[in-house]
């Protein structure tokens, strides 16, 4: 079985490589055979066509099929229009998931970006800076499931008066505060889950900000120092404005990651104690309730939630390019 799978993988790799080489040669010959004016117009379309085909097959078609599926009943046999949406939006569980998704969209980008920026600024141009950023980047290499298992032990709760096996509750108990049911208490469980995701993303934010800070000229800081500007004023009036496009990209990227949050929640709470988000609720509707229509409606809501963020990111990127010109 394993050899058969490796054989199929090898055949697929060879087929894709051969198809790419063949298409490239055919496209190049076609462009050379056309008149100059026509070739100039056809060339971009020929090179974009393969990528457009792949995007259409793996992204556009599934998205459209999901929207259509969301307008049918549980087994996809009867058309119900927007009833799945109205039913979902009238359920308390969906409203809780929407609230939690909003908390993730606000909490993860802000905390990840702020902590990442602080680390990048404090470790910029110091000898131990790369080691700090490398240490913070390690959680990115750990799978989301492993991260959730680690932090679940970290948040482990035992009743008051018994030995605490969770690291965090052992610390708060030593400080004289009673053990906190971090993953059960509705006031703290969602922030605790968001903190887990922040731990995984802070290193990525720090590395991105560190790269942006390298693009800021040291001469600007030296001139500001000669004028008597404090480090805070240098950061506020020099650093932040110059790296602001990067800040926007990081915030929007973290927001998209927050909307896709699933693994951490599924492993740590499975959506219990009002910790469901749109992604986990969609999973339950599809695999537990076996309702294709409602799961499609939730997937559509999730897609519509991501779309404005992506649109804003693209618009900001284009305006940045125009500013550079």
CATH fold annotation of the largest domain? MetI-like fold
| Tally of distinct domains | 2
**Range of strand content:** under 5%
Largest sheet: none
CATH superfamily of the largest domain: MetI-like
Give the % helix: over 70%
Shape: globular
Radius of gyration in whole Å, from Cα? 25 Å
Count of runs of 4 or more consecutive helical residues: 13
- Please give the CATH architecture of the largest domain: Orthogonal Bundle
**Pairing-aware structural class of the strands and helices?**
mainly alpha
Element order, helices and strands? HHHHHHHHHHHHH
Counting DSSP E segments of at least 2 residues, the number of strands comes to 0
Description:
With 325 residues, this protein is mostly helical. The chain has two domains: 2-69; 86-324, MetI-like fold (Orthogonal Bundle). 77% of the residues lie in helices and 0% in strands. The chain has 13 helices and no strands. The model has no long low-confidence stretch (mean pLDDT 89).
Provide key terms for this protein.
325 residues, mainly alpha, MetI-like fold, 2 domains, globular
Protein topology:
Layout: H1 2-33, H2 36-69, H3 83-89, H4 92-122, H5 129-141, H6 144-154, H7 167-174, H8 189-213, H9 218-226, H10 231-259, H11 263-268, H12 278-288, H13 292-324
